[in-house]
Amino acid sequence: MALTKRTIDSLTYMATDGQRQVKWDDELSGFGMRIYPNGKKAFVLSYRIAGRKRLMTIGSYGQYTVDEARKLARKHLVAVDGGIDPLETRQRDAQGETVRDLCAAYIERHAKLNKRTWQEDQRRIDRFIVPAWGGRKAKAVTGTDTTALHSKIGKTAPYEANRVLALLSKIYELATQWGFVPKGFPNPARGVARFKEHERDRWVSAEELPRLAKAIDSEANVYVRMALWLYLLTGMRKGELLAARWEDIDWQREELKLGQTKSGKVHYVPLSAPAMAILRELPRLEGNPYILPGHIHGRPLVNINKPWTRIRKLAGVQDVRLHDLRRTVGSWLAQSGNSLHLIGRVLNHSNQSTTAIYARFGQDHVRQALEEHAARLMGVAGKRPAAEVVKIGQKSA
Asked: Is 280 within a domain?
C-alpha cells in the first residue's frame, strides 16, 4: 500500500496486546506509518546499519505531510549508505553536546594525556569559556562569538585573550575529529585577529634581588616560597614546575625530567646545589605525588598569583610578572658571558638547533652555567651557600 493522505486518514489501531502496528509504504522501502493505541500516527523509517536493525521516528503526521516525510526518509537513507546512523546522530544532538561537554572531553581526552600544563587550560576554560558559552551547543558558536569574547578579555588582558583564542582553536580542531561538530564546520577561532604582543625585556636586577629575596622569604606558605626560589634558580616555566612530581627527580644525576614541555620534547633540568638543597628540605605530603602540593588532596599547587602579587608589592617590583623570573635566569646567564645557544638549552627554547635525542649530551656545560648562576644569584641575595641556603623553617631577617 502506497502511503497517501487518504490511506493514512483511514488507518486505525488494530493490533492486540499493545503490539507495534506499522503500515509500510510500497513506494519507498523502509518508510512507513506507525499507529499508536491512542490514535496518534507518526512516520517511521526502518533500516539496517553495521548489522543492527534500527527503527527511527521521523515525525508525527500533521507535523509533516506524506511527501515531506518521504523526502526526509530518502535523505536519511543516503546517510545510512554513507555509513552514518541518523538515529545515533539525532540522539547525540538531543543530548546537547554543549561547549561544556566539549571542553570536558578536551581536558580528559587530550590535555591530560599530552600536556603537563593542562591545569592552565582548565583554568582558562573555567574562567572564560564555560561562563560565556557553557550551556550552548558546540556547533552554535560562531566566529562573531569568539571575536566578542576575545575582545572582552583583551580589554584588560590582551596576552591572556590570545592564549584563550589559541586554546579555542585547538578545542574546535579536535571537536571535528570527535564528532561534536559536523565535518567542514568552520573553526570559530580561526581568522580572529590577535592582539599585538611585544616581547618583554623585564627581569630582576642585581639591585632589586635582595628586596625580592627578603619578600619571598616572608611568605608563609612554604611551597609558594620554594616555588619562587626554584623559578629563579632553574628558569622553568610556571606550569612545568607546578606539574613536576617527586618521581621526576633523579637524585643521583641531580636533575629534573620534564616529560611534556612547551616544545613538545623531553627536557632535563640540571639542579644546582641551592636547588637540590630546597628539594631535600621540602616537606612531602603523604598521598600527594607533586613536589609543590596544593590545598586539594593529591593535586598540585595551581595558582600562586595572589601571593606573588603580595611579594612583588612588598619588594617594590610590582611590574615584575611571574614569567619574568624565567627571563631573569636568561638575562643573568647572558650577563655572565654564556652563549645564546647555551641559554636556549637552559630555557629549553623550541627553536634550538640540537635535536631532542642529543639533549643530554653536553649537560655538564648546562650544569656549570646554572651552578655559576645559582652561586651569583644567592650571593647577591645575601644567602649562605649550598645546603644552608634555604632552611625551610627559617626566614631571612
From this structure: yes
Same-domain check for residues 230 and 371? yes
Among residues 124, 120, 113, the alpha carbon closest in space to that of 300 is found at 120
Q: Coil, strand or helix: which one is 21?
A: strand
Contact 281, 391 (CB under 8 A): yes
Residues 126 and 245 grouped into a single domain: no
∠ Cα 234 250 291 (to 5°): 60
Three cell numbers written together for 323: 614569567
What residues make up the domain containing 121?
99-178
Domain with residue 271: its CATH number is 1.10.443.10
Measured at the CA of 73, the angle between CA 71 and CA 77, to 5 degrees, comes to: 120
pLDDT tens string 243-302: 899 999 999 999 999 876 555 668 889 999 999 999 999 999 989 999 999 888 889 998
**Regions of the chain where pLDDT drops below 50:** 353-362, 387, 392-393, 396-397
Give this prediction's pTM.
Answer: 0.51
DSSP state of 47: E
Is residue 189 in some structural domain? no
What is each CA distance from 360 to 121, 357, 383, in whole angstroms? 30, 8, 30
Q: Which candidate, 274, 256, 250, places its Cα nearest to that of 388?
A: 274
Residues 162 and 286 in one domain: no
